[in-house]
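Module 6 notes. Inverse folding takes a fixed backbone as the condition and produces residue identities as the prediction. Think of it as a translation problem where the source language is geometry and the target language is the twenty amino acids. Below is one complete input and output pair. Work through it position by position during the lab.
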């Protein structure tokens, strides 16, 4: 992450009792030992804004995601039902959606979504330090230590939603030229995307909030073979949300079949 990104993250609404010094070398964000030592001192930090800021953009996407047992709800509107019926259906839908938050850190995202009715969430991070702490803090939720480049602990087609807020950003800090990123970073991001694709159910969605400009991020989200064929057949859309921080994209990526 750049120094501007660090500045942005420092202006977020965070509740941190200890002052965390950002690393001199931003490549540190790539390493587990950096996050472990940071999480020993830091209690809570939300990169790229909080759930309350993102809720209005996430809700229509989450509620329109097809689960195996409910009908599609578009933009929160269900015709021909009473308000009570609508609320019940929305609450059922929220409970049903199986969500994985990758690289959860000590953000309040998972707990805030849980309080908003999304009770079927797994929070995952490769830092054992943060997972231990978050388990004690929020025992009502599920916390798993895992590397997003190797999620063999999850079966194929397990999740309706995989949510990433600032996590791929930590993986690409040593990408070099954003127009022509380093091969090892292309390899790692492809591994991450293939794992996410594998664990998503058909029509499931990968939602990503990022510091990156969309055209640079698409190089990683839409990897191509040497003869310019897409490696993954998922669809990629984004909205640019200017109201949060200096403006961040929210990617909405869907595994086929599309709806
Ligand atoms: C920039 S922080 C974002 C934290 C949180 N998602 C938020 O919104 O505030 C990046 C997080 O990704 C985690 N992370 C980095 N690489 C990872 C990997 N390979 N597997 C799992 N988690 C990883 C770090 O431990 C850290 O918690």
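Target side of the pair, the amino acids:
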């Amino acid at each position: 992450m750049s120094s501007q990104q660090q500045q942005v993250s420092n202006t977020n609404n965070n509740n941190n009792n200890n002052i965390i010094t950002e690393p001199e070398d931003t490549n540190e964000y790539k390493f587990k030992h950096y996050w472990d030592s940071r999480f020993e001192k830091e209690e809570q930090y939300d990169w790229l804004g909080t759930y309350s800021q993102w809720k209005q953009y996430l809700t229509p996407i989450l509620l329109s995601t097809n689960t195996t047992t409910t009908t599609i709800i578009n933009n929160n509107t269900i015709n021909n039902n009473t308000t009570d019926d609508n609320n019940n259906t929305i609450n059922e839908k929220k409970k049903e959606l199986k969500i994985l938050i990758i690289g959860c850190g000590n953000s309040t995202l998972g707990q805030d979504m849980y309080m908003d009715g999304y009770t079927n969430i797994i929070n995952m991070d490769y830092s054992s330090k943060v997972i231990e702490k978050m388990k004690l803090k929020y025992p009502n939720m599920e916390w798993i230590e895992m590397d997003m480049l190797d999620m063999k602990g999850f079966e194929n087609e397990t999740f309706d939603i995989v949510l990433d807020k600032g996590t791929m950003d930590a993986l690409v800090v040593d990408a070099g030229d954003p127009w022509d990123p380093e091969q090892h970073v292309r390899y790692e991001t492809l591994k991450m995307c293939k794992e996410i694709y594998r664990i998503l159910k058909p029509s499931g969605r990968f939602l990503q909030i990022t510091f990156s400009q969309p055209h640079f991020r698409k190089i990683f989200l839409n990897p191509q073979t040497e003869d310019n064929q897409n490696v993954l057949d998922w669809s990629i859309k984004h909205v640019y949300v200017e109201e949060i921080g200096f403006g961040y994209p929210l990617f909405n990526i869907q595994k086929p079949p599309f709806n």
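Reference fact for the lab report: The two ends are 34 Å apart (CA to CA).
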